[in-house]
Amino acid sequence: MQERKGSQSRYQGRPVTIEEDCYIGANCTIYPGIRIRRGAYVAPGEVVRSDIVAYGFQGFKPNYM
């Protein structure tokens, strides 16, 4: 409880933006404040720490593309 300081706290919730036509695999962890742009692919089990560009990949690439 000592860590809670309102807007001065280091534990701040930030929005996660997921645009249209994205594939996000099972068991992914997406950090607060991340933006996943249109058509992005996130492999199962990945940890997303930075923004993903439009039609970009995070993790392994699927063999059908």
From TrEMBL:
Stored SUPFAM superfamilies: Trimeric LpxA-like enzymes
Keywords from the named record: Transferase
Name used for this protein in its record: Maltose acetyltransferase
One Pfam family linked to the record: Hexapep_2
InterPro entries registered for this protein in UniProt: Hexapep, Hexapeptide_acetyltransf, Trimer_LpxA-like_sf
A GO molecular-function descriptor: O-acyltransferase activity
UniProt entry tagged with the keyword Transferase: yes
